[in-house]
Amino acid sequence: MILLDIVYYAFIVIVGIQVLYYTILFGKFSFSKPKRKYAKKLPISIIICAKNEARNLKNFLPSIINQDYSDFEIVLINDASQDDTLEVMEHFEKQHNNIQVIDVKNVEAFWGNKKYALTLGIKASKYDHLLFTDADCKPVSNKWIKKMTAHFSDDIQVVLGYGAYIKVKKSFLNKLIRFETLITAIQYFSFAKLGIPYMGVGRNLAYTKKEFFDNNGFVDHMKVRSGDDDLFVNQIASKKNTAINYVKESFTKSIPKKSFRAWYKQKRRHVSTAKHYKFKHKFLLTLIYSCNFLFWVLAIVLFSLTYNWPIVLAIFLLRLIIQTIIYNASAKKLDEKDLIYLLPFLEVFLIIIQLTIFINNLISKPNHWK
Questions:
Q1: Minimal CA–CA distance to 158: which of 100, 90, 101, 241?
Q2: Tens-place pLDDT, residues 197-248
Q3: Is 70 helix (H, G, I), strand (E, B) or coil?
Q4: C-alpha angle 334/335/337, rounded to 5°?
Q5: What are phi and psi of 200, to 5 degrees?
Q6: Which pTM value belongs to this model?
Q7: Which residues have a Cβ under 8 Å from the Cβ of 115 and sit 6 or more positions away?
Q8: CB atoms closer than 10 angstroms to residue 314
């Protein structure tokens, strides 16, 4: 009975912590309104690093070429591809005078390291303001450059955008991938809104060349194969120099993985970089995950033993209601409303998968950049 008392009170404490971070941390983003920003006449360098992406470049590059923006270049980086990526890039380069191609060969010291290829592309870019996306990404509108770069100012040197995934009907895997992307976005937008930015996604990210070189680029984590986006943002982003952009015209959409195995490998790579975050970020993210995990474990124990079940049920439902309200508000902003109907199921699946990834990453190192 004493043990069950401990479980019961632990459950109450966990829910209390969750209510606080849902309302104070996530609520700050969920119920915020985007600040209206006017387009600036800044020359922009679009940076796209690709490895074996010939087909995606053919399909998605025109949506970037046709952006409604007066002064921009596109820097296409071929990172030692083995398919026709370089040929496709050179074809576009011949047709458009604002495209330059950087062909990166593998060198022993930086074998398969995307950060090395990106560094060469950044050095070759003409302009100080850089906007990053991936070869398998498509801006949802021709105002993408305008909306992302409108946030730059003398103080703002980093702009965090939202990189969504294309919706696939009648696919639970697609919903799981998009749900994980939504939760991650809620977290990094909320942290940034609170003044403690910790990551961004390379599918939709902007920063200045000056900020890159003033912080020695990727030097501090060059040996970490992944993390050209989140680790770099974790390194340089601050309350004063970072802005978030969640206007729908600024979104990009990417092709999601088609198999669970491929997505699982991708997430293993992403999760492996988290251990290199600053301590305060690791602590807060670990707290959020631990509370989610313990909430479900303790609830299952208490329900299965029918211990004070009316009170436990009331607390359980209170937490779900608050979570649903917060997530629904964010999902509306990020155009992911269809995910809310499966919220409890997707959350449980994601918690289990994240735990499995954590254990697997302790046992063996994940593979990296293609």
A1: 241
A2: 999 999 999 999 999 999 999 988 888 878 889 999 999 999 999 999 999 9
A3: coil
A4: 110
A5: -145, 175
A6: 0.92
A7: 217, 218, 221, 222, 225, 228
A8: 11
